[in-house]
Structures are given as C-alpha cells and as structure tokens.
C-alpha cells in the first residue's frame, strides 16, 4: 500500500513508460503521486504498488509483495484439485479391473445379451458410486480451469506484466497510435514492455520484491 511515508521510495522503483504510466500524476482519491505500475483499488480504497488485480477469492489486492503468495496459492490449489482427480480416477479404474466389470454382459430392453461397453460402464459406475463420479467430474473441470489460469499467471510472471498492464496494453496502444493517424506505409507499432529483463530477473522481482523496510535495515 502506498502511503505518505513510503511514497518517495516507490516513486523510484520503476521507470515511467509514458504510455500506460505517465510521470507526475496524482491519485485523485489518495492525493499521492502515482508511482509507475501502481493503481488505486476502488474496493480497498488505497493505491497499491505494482497492482495486479483485486482478488475476490482472497478478498485482497494482489500487488508487489503478495504476487508470490498468490502464485503459490494458485499452484497448490491446482495441484490439490488435480491430485483429487487422479486419486478418484485410480480408484474407479482399480474397481473396474478388480471386479472384471469390463468382461460382464447385460440384458438390454429387448431382452438381448450385450457385451459391456464404455457408455454402459460409466452409467453403471455413476449409479453405483454417484458421489465419487460426480466429485471426479467436478475436480476435473476445476483442474482445467485452475490449470489454465495458472498458465496465464505464470506467463505474466515470466514476461514481467501485471494483469492490469496486460488488460490495458491494447487500450494504451490504441490511444497512442490511433488507426486514423497512422500513415498507410507505417510499420505496425508494438507496445514495448520496458520492465522485462529476462526470465530469471522477472521471477526474482516477484519472489524478492523491492522493500523499503529492507532498504532501511541495509543502511
Ligand atoms: Zn489512490
Ligand atoms: Zn483491493
């Protein structure tokens, strides 16, 4: 959180790109100078350094100092959903193999003997173990959703972008380079991320963020 006490420190952390974050802008709510990459959170009503997004699940802003915890949280959440899916699948497969269900036959509506097929097997398992099959379906969907979101968050971490910057990227680009103002021969202009300095440097920034208390102790 940016306050009067740490404002000066945060102003020096990141360079202004003059596209998304222009210099010498004050936050209209806090009346503090806005450091580059910061944003005022309307839910929490304070300015956050390296603002990513306001997370409704943890009911807090995700910014410079807690992006690492958010990443670990998402990673463990995905891992637990995926392991539940693996354990439930292993249980059902084991059950089918041990009871040799796939070798069974059944009598259909017309009175004919039928060999067990996959659809009938799933139907049988659902009727016999409804909670386990329902749980499996649920954790599988959850694993895919969380896994997809985790990939997106890892991509942002690796390329040193915040969700806020990723979202605003196209918008800022359009403002700076409106289509009408561009001559037809002009090369397409791409918004340059000035904060990315290689994968390890980007990850280090998330796991060891700049900290004014730490700076003070060092002196
Ligand atoms: Zn503010
Ligand atoms: Zn917030």
Automatic annotation (TrEMBL):
<keyword id="KW-0333">Golgi apparatus</keyword>
<keyword id="KW-0472">Membrane</keyword>
<dbReference type="InterPro" id="IPR001594">
    <property type="entry name" value="Palmitoyltrfase_DHHC"/>
</dbReference>
<comment type="similarity">
    <text>Belongs to the DHHC palmitoyltransferase family.</text>
</comment>
<feature type="domain" description="Palmitoyltransferase DHHC">
    <location>
        <begin position="26"/>
        <end position="168"/>
    </location>
</feature>
<protein>
    <recommendedName>
        <fullName>Palmitoyltransferase</fullName>
        <ecNumber>2.3.1.225</ecNumber>
    </recommendedName>
</protein>
<keyword id="KW-0564">Palmitate</keyword>
<keyword id="KW-0256">Endoplasmic reticulum</keyword>
<dbReference type="InterPro" id="IPR039859">
    <property type="entry name" value="PFA4/ZDH16/20/ERF2-like"/>
</dbReference>
<keyword id="KW-1133">Transmembrane helix</keyword>
<keyword id="KW-0808">Transferase</keyword>
<keyword id="KW-0812">Transmembrane</keyword>
<keyword id="KW-0012">Acyltransferase</keyword>
<keyword id="KW-0449">Lipoprotein</keyword>
<dbReference type="Pfam" id="PF01529">
    <property type="entry name" value="DHHC"/>
</dbReference>
<keyword id="KW-1003">Cell membrane</keyword>
<feature type="transmembrane region" description="Helical">
    <location>
        <begin position="132"/>
        <end position="158"/>
    </location>
</feature>
<feature type="transmembrane region" description="Helical">
    <location>
        <begin position="70"/>
        <end position="98"/>
    </location>
</feature>
